[in-house]
Amino acid sequence: MDQNVKLFRTRVKIGNWNQERYLEEEAMKNYLEKKVRGDLITQREDSLKRQILKPVSLSVTNDGRLHFGDVVMLMNVGAETRERSAVSINADIYSVRTGPAPSIQAPCGVSAGRVQACTRTAFIITSVDGSPEGSALHFDQKFALKTTSGFAGGFYLTSDIQTFQKCAQMSRLQEVSLEAGNSSLSWWKLAHFDPRERLEHEGQPVPANEKVLIVHCKTNQALAALGHQVLWTTYGKEYEVTAHTFFDSHKAEQDENHWIVCTSDAAGNKLELVSNTQASADNTDSTQMT
């Protein structure tokens, strides 16, 4: 038989055409069902961002101090190679508990992301020693940092001693995460950023919107944002957050450990106060250098 002779017309279906058509119809059916339920990955990401990026009003400071019960944002001052960033909930679509009242599940990671007062970056200064809400927070006084209730879950910023199995993803330093329970692993304290003035400020009220160290009580390691360890998250390029104290040649903590506990001012300027505070901190640094 001549091999050039066509045995079938072009419209004749060959192979497993019926099975392939059935699988295509099933795939389309599953896609439409997920779309109706809102279970598509793009829909879940949009829903997550709508919830977690909702604006949050930071507490207003009338006396210029931090208080228990204040809603604050933890902003790293940044450096030449690292932008300013805020401690943020690093939740993805697989970290969210579905249901009538969706919320983030613990444990959940944190990262240093965009400076924006929202559910993702808001923390509540919580007493662990019986201090009443509204009382001033003092240097070297223990406290906890809790996320807001609702979608953010009311979880506590927690850390523990670095081990081979439990450490930061990129740097392998001491891990920082969000946990459901409040224990001694969730206790922190504030210290003056300048070691030469630290002793005289011990026990004094902590001023809001000024540079401080956030130190983990159990391990005595300072909270740090690592500019050389970049994480690509659902929210874009961010930095890894660990508990590790970085010293310079003079045994002073470096800018990775310098944070501003941000509040709103009485005039209601919100994050405009952060810009003013940063400019003031930069001027202070340049004055000290001269």
Automatic annotation (TrEMBL):
InterPro entries: CF161, MIR_dom_sf. One of its GO terms (cellular component) is motile cilium. SUPFAM superfamilies: MIR domain. It comes from the Eukaryota. GO terms for biological process: cilium assembly. This is Cilia and flagella associated protein 161. It comes from Takifugu rubripes (Japanese pufferfish). The lineage of its organism: Eukaryota, Metazoa, Chordata, Craniata, Vertebrata.
